[in-house]
Design a protein that fits this description.
150 residues; alpha+beta; Ubiquitin-like (UB roll); four-stranded mixed sheet; two-stranded antiparallel sheet; PRA-CH; histidine biosynthesis
Amino acid sequence: MALTFVAPSKDKAELETGTAFTPRFDEKGLVTAVVTDARDGELLMVAHMNAEALALTIETGIAHYYSRSRNSLWKKGESSGNVQTVQEIRTDCDQDAVWLKVSVAGHDATCHTGRRSCFYRAVGVENGKARVTITDEHRHFDPAQIYAEK
């Protein structure tokens, strides 16, 4: 039996303090998913989930997301082997975002660039212009080999 979600309560107090998990999907049917490493708390990625991805994640304990660019469901690590096993799921006060604490298998990398985190660049200012600098050069795997056409 597939997991389904009921509509969020319009009662703010019930939404914020009640025990029902009633995710508030946006107009495109998505909620934001913030993903951190359960081991050390490092921010690994931010993604989106539709109801199917969220239900599969809860049911299987393996992170699933919805790709806005591909308009499709995807199981994290399906191609790379860097599967995310969910240790805990939390939701924010108005239930329009979820926080996944995960353990990463494979190369212990989350980003498709081969890095541990998708947040490998810092934003700063140089000569009056916003710039980014890479703060993590370490690649845990070669993306060209992992994502090569099969």
